[in-house]
Specification:
This protein folds into two domains: 3-124 and 250-318, Bordetella uptake gene, domain 1 (D-Maltodextrin-Binding Protein, domain 2), CATH 3.40.190; 125-241, D-Maltodextrin-Binding Protein, domain 2, CATH 3.40.190.10. Helices cover 45% and strands 19% of the residues. The chain contains eleven helices and ten strands. It is globular, with a radius of gyration of 21 Å. The mean pLDDT is 90.
Length: 323
């Protein structure tokens, strides 16, 4: 580089450095957009809808949920990654964010370096649900029925490479089952197929699955974490039903585009954590079987790195595949 170009680069960097505090002082001056990489009506909505109400009140600006589903969250996540880092676009992510790089080496973004982690929101335990026509009521009965009908039971997921798919592939491996996989673009269409009898079983977030179980549309067979769910203490876990290695939960979180000013990320973290700790939110999430999981941006960044390693090992173990 010439001396002139070096000076120009330094001047640009200095200007950006000076701009960040100014932006933080005036931010937010307009509505924010929260990119949701799933269709409306899924488990994420149960967390995001009350959260954006709290954030809108705290920030003095409306937070608008913008649904951009498809490609196992990649479409919406790319929009977040490539948005202007001005604090007006934030993205909803799940552990699919850590799983996708295991299957796709050519993602249109870097899952770690193109984002500024804000905070995790909740841990989402899963439950295993079946259509009422499947003649089982316990996990042991389900395993026996599936082994007596190899390849005849179909399970749904949110797509190849997603957490719901990985959970079932791991359970299949442990139980020695032959199940047909049918992928969908989101939990809402997968649940509709399960309720309609097009598929016989699936893993789904406890917040949604327990609701469907209470009204009789689906039978809830078991939960995925090792410990029983506080929201459903009579429901046995898969681990205690004979598969003690099985322990699977998903999580939800918020990120911003990389280079979003640290002051803005800190403010978003502060207000999101405050919202998660509000008594009404704690009560709402507890009733849904969700576990609030606020953390610092730094802790969330470390979690993302750890999850990438964890899911890489799981994929090797199960032989699961991506899209």
């Amino acid at each position: 580089m010439t001396r002139r170009s070096i000076c120009a680069a330094l001047a640009t960097a200095a200007a950006m450095f000076a701009l960040a505090p100014a932006l933080a002082q005036t931010w937010p001056a307009k509505p924010l957009r929260l990119i949701m990489p799933y269709p409306p009506g899924g488990g994420g909505d149960l967390v995001v809808r009350p959260l954006v109400d709290k954030l809108s009140q705290a920030l003095g600006q409306t937070v608008v949920v913008d649904y951009k589903p498809g490609a196992n969250t990649i479409i919406g996540t790319e929009i977040t990654a490539k948005a202007a880092p001005d604090g007006y676009t934030i993205g909803f992510i799940t552990d699919s964010h850590s799983i996708n790089p295991v299957f796709r080496r050519n993602l249109p973004y870097d899952s770690l370096n193109d984002f500024a982690p804000i905070t995790t929101l909740v841990t989402v335990p899963m439950v295993l649900v079946t259509h009422p026509t499947v003649p089982v009521r316990t996990l042991q009965e389900l395993v026996a029925h599936a082994k007596a009908n190899p390849g005849k039971l179909a399970y749904g997921s949110l797509g190849f490479g997603g957490p719901h798919y990985l959970a079932m592939e791991w359970f299949k491996l442990l139980a020695g089952l032959d199940l047909l996989h049918i992928p969908y673009q989101g939990s809402a269409p997968a649940l509709a197929a399960n309720v309609g009898g097009q598929i016989q079983l699936m893993f789904v977030g406890a917040s949604t699955g327990l609701q469907y179980g209470r009204d009789g549309r689906l039978n809830v067979i078991a939960s995925s974490p090792v410990a029983r769910l506080p929201a459903s203490p009579n429901l046995p876990s898969i681990a205690e039903s004979g598969y003690n290695e099985f322990d699977f939960s998903t999580w939800y979180g918020l990120v911003a585009p990389a280079k979003t000013p640290a002051e803005v990320v800190s403010k978003l973290n502060q207000e999101t954590v405050r919202a998660l700790r509000a008594p009404d939110m704690q009560q709402r999430f507890g009733a849904l079987g969700l576990i609030p999981l606020p953390m610092t941006p730094e802790a969330f960044a470390a979690k993302l790195r750890d999850d990438a390693s964890h899911y890489s090992s799981m994929v090797k173990l199960t032989g699961a595949r991506g899209e």
